[in-house]
Structures are given as C-alpha cells and as structure tokens.
Model the fold of this input.
Amino acid sequence: MKVRNLYYHTVFKRTNSVKVFILQVFLALASWFRVFIEVFTRKKFGERYFLFPLNIMLAVILGIVPLGRYYGTPVLAIIFKNLTWYAYIVAFMIASYKRYLEVKREPSVFDFKRFSLSPGIIKKWLYKIDLIGMKMTNRNISIFVEPGIFMLIGMVLVALQQDIGYLLISSATVYGYSWAAQYYLGDQFIMDTIDQMIANEELVNSFVHTRIPADTRGFEVDASKIKSREFRRMVAENMMESEPAVDVI
Done:
C-alpha cells in the first residue's frame, strides 16, 4: 500500500507551471530538429518515438526550400548549386529508412519486450570518443558529443559557403538544449521522489519528537507546534494518507 504525505504535497510540492509548460512545448518542437541528427547517431528507436512519415515530410520540405529560393532557375542548376544540401537529404533518407526497418524488426511492445517511446540506443562508436576530462556517459553524449559533432561539421560547411551548414548548426543547438531540458525534468522528478521519501521518514521525528532540521536531514514541519505530544502524534497520523492498491482479478 502506497503512502502519500499530505504535508509534503501541500507545502513543498510547488511547481512552476509556466516553466514546465515552456519546457514541454520546447521539447515537442525540438523533435523536428533532433531527427536531423539522431538518425545518424542512434538506432533501434521506439515505434511511437520514431515516425518515418515525419522524416519523409521533412525531407520533402528541405527539398522544396532551394526550389523556392531560386524560383525560375532550371531544377538541375539548382541541384548542382546546392549539391551538399541535396546530398544531406539523400543521406538523411537512407539513415531514416534503416531506422524504419529496425523498428519493424523490433519485438512487439504488446509483449512487454520494447519501450515504445525509446529515443534510441546511442551507437557504440560515440562511447569511444576520447575527450579530456569528459566521461562518456549517455547524458554527456546526448548534451555535448552528438550535437557537438554536427556543430563542427556545420561550421566547416558554413565556412565553405554551404547552406546545409546552417541547418546542422541550428539542429545541433536545439538538440543539445533539448536533451539538457529533458535531463533537467528527469532530475527534478527523481529529487521530488527522494524528498517525499525523506519527508515520510522524518515527519514523526520533526513534528512529533520536535527534532531540529540538523537531525532530520533538513526536513522540518513549518508550523506551530502542538504542546501535547500525543496530539502531535494524532495530527501526524492524519498527515499520511494511504493509497490502496488496485487488485486485478
């Protein structure tokens, strides 16, 4: 049976709704930019995460951009003028198709063998990159290494006056910040869980036994203390609410 600390959820569980909303909207929009990188650096995406039709649509949009920019110019001339742009589109579609085939071959999520929202498995060669002072963890690779590689490639292409470089730079920037935001939200959830556990364990020590925060891992019930210890215990018992488990027959 799960126990819910009413004091913690009422007093401490304050969330910045605007900040959380902005982060969630940013992460939703960032998926359109992340796909330009992750199809090359990751594999075995979850079937609800990887959307092959979206990749096709993005490739079509990218293909149309130069045509609109150089409207009236022969198509072949536009293609040769933007050779690296269209070469990237071809590479992007080839990588996307490979990821699509991987998703099709993965075990069914209905058999509990695959997380359908998996953002993919980082390719092994990225763990072998040697950067002084940086441990190759999933977090560091997602925030710094993956976008960093494409940022450098984009900068070289921009220096060579290739427009595709701007797409890679912008995608890399959004990629890094989106993963940083995602890890931030994850960290906040873990800390909320830990804080609730501490609040549950130290509620009696703080409120009933009136111990100071130094002895309760920093937790304190910020309220006027009831003189009677027995009454304090009764109140503390009512601060905890049991959430019965659901039995499935």
